[in-house]
Target: Phosphoserine aminotransferase
Amino acid sequence: MTTITIPQDMRPEDGRFGSGPSKIRPEQVAALDAGATTLLGTSHRQAPVRRLVADIREGLRDFFRMPDGYEVALGNGGASAFWDVACASLINRRAAFGCYGSFSAKFAASAASAPFLEDPVRFEGEPGTYRLPELTDGVDAYCWAHNETSTGVAAPVRRVPGSLEQDALTLVDGTSAAGALPVDVSQTDAYYFSPQKAFGSDGGLWVAVLSPTAVERAARVEHAATLPGARRWVPPFLSLTSAIANSRKDQTLNTPAVATLVMMADQVRWLNGNGGLDWAVARCAKSAETLYAWAERSDYASPSVADPAARSHAVVTIDLDERIKASDVVAALRDNGIVDTAGYRKLGRNQLRVGVFPSVEPSDVKALTACVDYIVERL
Model:
């Protein structure tokens, strides 16, 4: 393919549009430099790093407007590790899942493989749609993803009617939604995510907003696992009660990547300083609607998600006409310093996928659309 050179004045000022890892602001990198001698390479159980964790926990309390009694816990391993934490410590016998993409289905697969849990109930939705779990006898946890990163679908966050009377927990994966989409965490018992999306940091950490009911459930489930004849095994690394106990001390059970904490703390301060969740949601919506409006006007592109109400304002997916190879567009963009716009590999669609998290400038999103048009005209 002939190299296409986009005029410099057309290009975004920052060409990073990843759906995770996402753009990291220069100020976050500067925060690493500022903490080089006091934070990096020091013990996570000492005061400087513990103050950093305390800043994150308190900042998230303000950002999510957490109800009384809710608390923030942190652990190692990323949100995918939290699926196993939930299987070990939160799901008592059986869970129901909304499955409508790669990531929402993976949690269900973890529960299916746990030998001490009953087979999960799966409510399947086609890619490009969402399907929430429905009230089901014998279920003690309802689980789904707020934002399906693989398809660009955003689902509602609200308790399944009747689930409270059933004493069932609501566990919502907020990995690519937290910090970008509106949420009322009181509608959940665990709203968990990783920091490499809207919180503009690196991966390897999970963060969970937990209700008092979830904390009590974890204590009860893990205690039952210690009784004679118990079939459940709770490895120390997957113990939610251990993560909670350490988080209350403003530390993690195992050594964390301190650089990740530094960058996340700076991002939380930046978000709160600009207006918190409402500001972040409005900023992401502006960027997302720029892309959707452009695609709807285009004669070769269209939003992948048909229902406007289900279209994500965190990760935007755009289908291209079959005569235009998305791989060619993505390659040409990369040649011009505009990166991470490829669709989710396992989905196999001819599409672009664009992360529009708070760190991404809306003006850069608008520039991206012009660059795609420029490339397509010359393919």
About this structure: The mean pLDDT is 96. The longest helix spans residues 276-297.
